[in-house]
């Protein structure tokens, strides 16, 4: 039985090495669709509840993206990306909504997942206008996700928001796999280290990464799902490193730009090892790369470690709203001046 199990593990590792389709499926988990039916996602009173729709002035939004899924994919034409727009509650005052957050969720399920809806409502509670979308292959959006394809989708959303919310400060926020998409978007948008766009205004005012990973290789080498392969298959680490089609080099992308970055992660995260592959490893890498490029002119990088928090409930921590508010405030402030980079690590006991 042990031999059979080992042979099965080796066989699966071989399939993983040779099949990019299998790799993509495991990375994006877009085939996990929940809640169902997806036809109800645009029925806001049902999806959010009438009270929430009124409180946050929630609207359905559609953005067109080109359909190129990658070098091996056919051109799908135009893909209709579907999402939600939320406004801050009225009690936030007339000045609320001047900041805009584009939210990218993680793998599996959809934008209508219960705790994701809670997540984006909390971001609106922080005083920002929030856009949250399903990218290609997720929920009621056609297509199959690839690294190139979801980056194209993210850029289409950014361009739409930039036009729609002209003059406002734009922040990008990603959770889990969404942090990799966020980082790829930053790399696409920022054509100079300061990410300064037309009119000498920052194209992106700040980045918030919730439960991130350094890059796809680091994530795979330390993820629980690959543990059996890594323990039993000879040269498993090299196989993983050499076979991964999806790279998502967030550390490289974030190290190239000088945009304020806040990382938030739970110490109890069971999906991404915070020290070996997650936030603590990422902040050190980005800090070093930024210092090498910008020296004392590099902007601040921060990480918030929530001690009693896991992978999917960072937004439930009592400090979350305060930390988001701080990220928005510092992002706007840092848009107007350079600061000496200081990777300040804050712990929540």
Automatic annotation (TrEMBL):
Protein name per its UniProtKB record: AB hydrolase-1 domain-containing protein
Natural source organism: Triparma retinervis
A UniProt-annotated Pfam family: Abhydrolase_1
Gene3D superfamilies tied to this protein: alpha/beta hydrolase
Domain AB hydrolase-1: 100-188
GO cellular component, one term: endoplasmic reticulum membrane
GO biological process: one example: phosphatidylserine catabolic process
SUPFAM superfamilies cross-referenced by the UniProt entry: alpha/beta-Hydrolases
Gene Ontology molecular function: monoacylglycerol lipase activity; phosphatidylcholine lysophospholipase activity
């Amino acid at each position: 039985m042990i031999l059979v199990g080992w042979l099965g593990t080796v066989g699966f590792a071989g399939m993983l090495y040779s099949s990019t389709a299998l790799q993509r499926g495991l990375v994006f988990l877009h085939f996990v669709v929940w809640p169902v039916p997806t036809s109800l996602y645009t029925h806001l009173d049902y999806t959010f509840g009438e009270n929430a729709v009124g409180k946050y002035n929630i609207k359905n939004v559609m953005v067109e993206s080109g359909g190129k899924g990658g070098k091996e994919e056919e051109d799908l034409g135009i893909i209709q990306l579907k999402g939600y727009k939320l406004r801050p509650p009225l009690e936030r005052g007339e000045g609320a909504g001047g900041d805009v957050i584009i939210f990218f969720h993680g793998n599996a399920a959809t934008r209508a997942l219960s705790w994701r809806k809670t997540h984006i409502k909390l971001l609106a509670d922080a005083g920002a206008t929030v856009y949250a979308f399903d990218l290609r292959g997720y929920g009621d959006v056609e297509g199959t996700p690839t690294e190139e394809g979801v980056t194209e989708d993210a850029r289409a959303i950014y361009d739409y928001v930039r036009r729609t919310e002209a003059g406002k400060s734009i922040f990008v926020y990603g959770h889990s796999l969404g942090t990799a998409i966020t980082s790829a978007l930053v790399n696409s948008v920022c054509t100079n280290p300061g990410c300064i766009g037309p009119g000498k205004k920052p194209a992106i005012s700040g980045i918030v990464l919730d439960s991130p990973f350094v890059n796809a290789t680091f994530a795979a080498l330390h993820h629980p799902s690959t543990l059996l392969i890594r323990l039993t298959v000879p040269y498993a680490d090299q196989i993983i490193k050499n076979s991964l089609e999806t790279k998502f080099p967030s550390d490289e992308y974030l190290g190239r730009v000088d945009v304020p970055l806040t990382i938030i992660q739970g110490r109890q995260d069971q999906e991404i090892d915070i020290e070996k592959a997650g936030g603590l490893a990422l902040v050190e890498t980005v800090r070093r790369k930024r210092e090498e490029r910008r020296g004392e002119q590099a902007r601040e990088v921060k990480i918030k470690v929530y001690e009693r928090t896991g992978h999917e409930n960072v937004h439930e921590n009592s400090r979350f709203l305060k930390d988001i508010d701080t990220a928005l405030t510092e992002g706007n402030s840092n848009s107007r001046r350079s600061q000496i980079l200081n990777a300040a690590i804050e712990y929540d006991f």
